[in-house]
Amino acid sequence: MIYKKRKMPNELKALISLDKRLPHDHEKKTTVQKNLLIYQAGYNGELEFDDQIANFKPNYSFAILHDLYLQHEGTYFQIDSLLITPSSITIIEVKNFKDKTVIKANPTQFIRVFRNGDRKPIPSPIMEVNRKIQFLSKWLDKRSIKIPIEGILTFSDTNEIAIEHPSPEMEILLTSAIPAYLSSQPEAQQVLDKKAIQTLANTFIASHKDYNPFPIADLYGINPSDIKPGVLCPSCNEIGMRWGREKWNCLCGHTGKTEHYQTIEDWFMLIKPKMTNSEFRYFTKLDNRNVARGLLAKTGLQLIGERKAAHYILTKEGKSPIPVE
User: Fold this and answer.
1) Residue 5: CA atoms inside 13 Å, Cβ hemisphere, count?
2) Secondary structure (DSSP) of 30-52
3) Which residues form the NERD domain (predicted)?
4) Angle at 66 between CA 61 and CA 72, to 5 degrees
């Protein structure tokens, strides 16, 4: 059973918005677009994995949790996907590399082979998984939970992988092979019953903390004044909708009443964790203070302070101002 579904990573969401609002000739544009492609490829690989793992249907109780962020002694660690079965926990690391990857053993080494033939060693995902196994083991020990932990490394089916013998110490699979591989594993001694699996899965969910890279302009050293203001039209994807006759209007003909929601979310992702009425008017290109106040009141943002000190923040739950349908 899927206990926690995967959401688009916050940094990917922010990079998509930043790319739309950063001028083409900005000095950080190339870096932003390069990282955007990397994050998008990684997310696409994870979604491909999610589709495949959904085909895993054993005759015993299990729990799958995607995209976990846990903390142990002040250190956060991220797990792409976690499988809990009656006999073990498996950390599954999902990779999606554009270029060919050569995997050597003794010592384990990953080498990226570019299309022009150049080769470059990259950090070992196996070592990465082993570190996560250590962190998770300590995290479980602190809660007096004893269960074997394993690791699997998976690559997208579109990746070219060359594994030199002898094979590295960790199972390396293509995403499409995951359901069959997991189903073929012999059932070991039971450690957790169905209720214990459910309890542990819910403990993971309760301990999960969303990764927050905001405001991303600071992360990339971008001056907020370089970020283009305006309301993005969801129809033509251009920035420049104007408020008139109680709705947003675009030159392409699209109109709507909630297009400023995405603009507000962009502000919090890109620029800073609070917003004044004046900043809202600047970023949406609104002229009327009272109209701005009315629109902000309907967003679900939390109003803090009064008069000149008044500003808006996300709710304590950190929820987006955009309604979830």
Assistant:
1) 4
2) HHHHHHHHHHHHHHHHHHHHHHH
3) 41-159
4) 100
Reported as a single tens digit per residue, the pLDDT across 154-176 is: 999 999 999 987 677 899 999 99
Give 72-98 pLDDT, tens digit per residue.
Answer: 888 899 999 999 999 999 999 999 998
Q: What is the mean pLDDT of residues 204-211?
A: 94
Instruction: Measure the CA–CA gap between 154 and 173, rounded to whole angstroms.
Output: 5
- Residue-range domain boundaries for the chain: 2-207, 229-313
Q: Token pair for residue 268? A: 């919090």
Q: Which amino acid is at 280?
A: F
- Rounded distance, CA 180 to CA 284, Å? 51
| Spatial separation of the C-alpha atoms in residues 140 and 191, rounded to whole Å | 14
CA distance 14 to 173: 31
Torsion 74-78-84-90 (CA) sign: negative
**Cis ω for the linkage preceding 166 (within 30 of 0):** yes
Query: How much is the pLDDT for 296?
Result: 94
